[in-house]
User: Fold ABC transporter domain-containing protein from Ignelater luminosus.
Amino acid sequence: MSEISKIVPVDIEFQDLNYVIKGRSVKRVLKSINGNFYSGELTAILGASGSGKTTLLNILAGYISTGVTGSIKVNGTPRNMKTFHKLAAYIMQDDLLQPFLNVEEMMMIAAKLKLGDLKSTEEKSATVNEVLTLLGLEKCLGIRTEELSKGQKKRLSVALEMVSNPPVIFLDEPTSGMDTVSAKQCLNTFQTLTKQGKTVICTIHQPSASMLQQFDQVYFIHDGLCVYNGSMTNIIPFLSTLGYECPVTYSPADYIVETVQTVQDSALALSEGIQNGKTNQRDLLKESLSSLLPRLPFSIDEDIDVPIIDAHFPTTFWSQFYILSSRMFLQLKRNKMEIWLQVFNHAVATLIFVLLYYGIGNNADKIVFTYHYFISTLIFFLYTYTMLPVVLFPTELQLLKREYFNRWYDLKPYFLALTLRGLPLMVLLGLAFTSTTYVFTNQPIELYRFVWFSAVCILTAIASEGLGMTIGSVCNLMNGSMLASCIIAALILFCIHGAGYGSQISPIMKVIMHFSYLRVGIVAISNAMFRNRDSMDCVDKQYCYYQDPKRFLQDLGVDNTPCSLYISCLIVFVVVFKASGFLALKYRLTSEFSKIIVNYTYKVFRHR
Ligand SMILES: Nc1ncnc2c1ncn2[C@@H]1O[C@H](COP(=O)(O)OP(=O)(O)OP(=O)(O)O)[C@@H](O)[C@H]1O
Assistant:
C-alpha cells in the first residue's frame, strides 16, 4: 500500500461551542453550537458573510483558542492540541506560496521538513510524486509558484500539507475567486482525499447548486447559530417539517441563507429544529458505512505516522535551519530585483555623499560638514535597514503563518536563518559604501579608524533591521511605516541634541540620549575619527579654532570613553532588538504567547 493511502480515520465532535470576543464591546460570535464531522467525508460550512464560518473553522483547527468555551472531541476523546496539530493541516484563505521556487522545489522542501531525517531522499521524492499525481499537478513540476493558476495554487497548498499525510484537512474558502469549472475540479480533488478516509472540512462562500452536490455533509451557520446540519438531500424535507417550503426553482442552500436573513425568527426556529447542530440529518447509508470504520483514541504519540525527533517537530533544529537557509538563499539568488534595488540604493547614496562631502575630511574649517557626513551615514543605515523589514515583513508573515501553524518548523531556526539571510549582502554593500565615501571624503587613512567607523555603521544597520522586524511583526504596512518614521525621528533627535553646545547638555540628558543607539554610534565614530589626531588643515591658521579636533569633541559633548565600550553598547542594542524582533514574531504567531502577555499585564495592573 502506498504511503499516503495509509490513514487513520478521525471524527471531530463539538458541543456547546461558544466564542466571545472582548473588544470595545463584547461580541458572541458562536452561540453554543454543536456538530459532528466524519472521516471519509467532505463537509462544507456554509452561511452568509459574517455568520461565523471562518471562526468555527479556526476554532476546530486550533488556530483560535482564546475566548472559546465548550468541548471539542477527536474520536470521542477530548482534543489534545499537541497531538491534534500532528493530525491536522490548515489551509487558509489567503494562503501565499513561497515565491521564486518551482512546484518540485516547494514539495521537496516540504517533504524534507515534514517527513524528518529518518526517511531517505528517494522515499521523500516518491511521496512527493505520489501526492502531485493524486492532486493532478504532476505536469507542473518545473513551474514557478507565481506562474500557477489560482486553482493550481490552491491544489499546491493542499499538496504541500498532504506530504505528511494528515488525516484531517481544514480549508478556508478554497474555491473563492475561482470560476465554476476550477472550483469543481478543486472539490473533485478533495473528494479523492476523502476516499482515502481523510476528514476534509471547508468553508464555502456562495457555492453553485452543482458544487453543493459534491459535499457529503453541509453545516449552515447564521449569526453564530447552527441552522442546518446534514446531507444536501435532506434539506428540503427538514425545512418542510418546520413549515418552510423551498420553491422547486430555488437551490435549497440559497433558500436557507435567504430565509434566515429575511424571515423574522426563522433562524431561531431552524436552530431549534436542528437542536443547534446536535441533530444530524445525515444519509442513513453513509452513517452505517462510516460506523464500520474503527476509531482510535489519539492520546498517545504512537498513533501518528510522522516521526517526531525534536519534541514537536519531525526534524532537528539544525536540519530545519539548514533547509530554511538554503531556501532563503535560493530565493534571494533568484530575486534579482531585490538585489539590484539594494545595489542601486547604496550606489546612489555613495554618489550623493561623495559629491556633497568630497575631500573635506582633513579640513578644520569644514569639520562641521565632516560631522554631518558621519551623522548622515548613520541615518542612511538606520533608515534603509529599518524600513526594509517594515515594508517586506508583513508579506513574509503571511507566508510564515501556514508553515508555522502546520508545524513544519520551529520559530528559532527560522528566525536565525532569516537574520543570516540578509547579512552577507548588508555587510558587502555596507563596506562598499563606507570604504568609497571614506576615501573620497579624505578621511585619515589609518586602518583602525576605518574599522571602527565601518563597524559602527554595520552594527547600526543590524540593530535597525531588528527594530524594523519588531515593527513589521506587529504592525501592518501603513501603521508600521508611521510608527517607524516616529521612532527614527526620535532616535535622530536624541542623537543630535546639543550638538555645538556639548558642555551645556545636562548629565541626565546625556544618559537619556544614549538610549538612542544612533547617539551611541555617533559618539563612537566621533571618538574614533577625531581623537588622538594630528592638527587638521586650516586656510587661516590664526583663527582656526578646530585645528585641534579635540575642541570639536568638547563642543559636541563627547567625552573620552573608549570606543570599544561604545561598540559593546551597540552590540547590546543589536541583541536587544533582535530578541524583541523574535518575541514580536512569536507574539504575532502564537495565541498562547499573546495570552501569557495579556494575562501577565492584567495581573500587574490588578495588583497595583
Ligand atoms: N477579531 C475580531 N474582532 C471582532 N469581531 C470579529 C473578529 N473576528 C471575527 N469577528 C466577527 O465575527 C463574525 C464572524 O466572522 P467570520 O470571519 O467567522 O465570518 P464568515 O462567516 O467567515 O464571513 P466571510 O464569509 O465574510 O468570511 C463577524 O461578524 C465578524 O465581524
In short: DSSP finds 23 helices and ten strands in the chain.
